[in-house]
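Quick one: sequence plus zinc ion SMILES, need C-alpha cells.
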Amino acid sequence: MSSRETRYSGTEITGEEARAGRYLLTRYETELKYSWSSGRAISRFLTGLRDGELWGRRCAGCGRTMVPPRMYCERCFRPTDEWVRLHDTGRVATYSVSYVNADASRREGEEPILVAVIEIDGASPNMGILHLLGEVSLEELAVGSKVEAVWKPRSERKGAITDIRHFRPIRGGLRRA
Ligand SMILES: [Zn+2]
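Reply:
Sure thing.
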C-alpha cells in the first residue's frame, strides 16, 4: 500500500506573503571555496597537456590503450599497467555542429561551434577525447577526417584540455608527432 502526501503540517508561506514582508527574511551571499583532486591518471594527463604531450594508459589484460587515461580497467576489473605517449593527431569519430553557445545563447551571425570526439592516434579504437574543431569548413568536414592538435604557445598552457586550442584537418601530407 502506498499513500502520497498532499498536505503537510505547518503553515504554508506564499510568495506574495514573503514579498509583503509578513515574515522575517534574511539575505546572505555565500562564498564557496573548494578544491578538487583530479586523481593520479588525470593529473598526469593534464601535466602532459601543459608539456604539449598526450598520454594514455595501457591495460595488459585487454591490451587497450585508454585516453583519457584511467588507473583501473573497467573491462578487466584490474589496475592498468603503463603510460603510453600518444600522438597529437587523430581522426574525427563523430562531430556536432552547434549554433548555440555553452550558456545556451544563440550564436547570431557567428560561425557555428564544431564539437567532435577525436580518436587519438596511438590509443585504441573508440578511445577519444571531446574537443573543438577549427580551421575547417562544414563542407570539407567528415567523420574519419584526419586532424592534428593546434596547441597554445607554451607560455599560455596551464595543464588544461584547453591547452589545445582545437584540432584542424591535416592538409597536404605527413605530419607526425
Ligand atoms: Zn583491460
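The radius of gyration is 24 Å. The chain has a mean pLDDT of 91.
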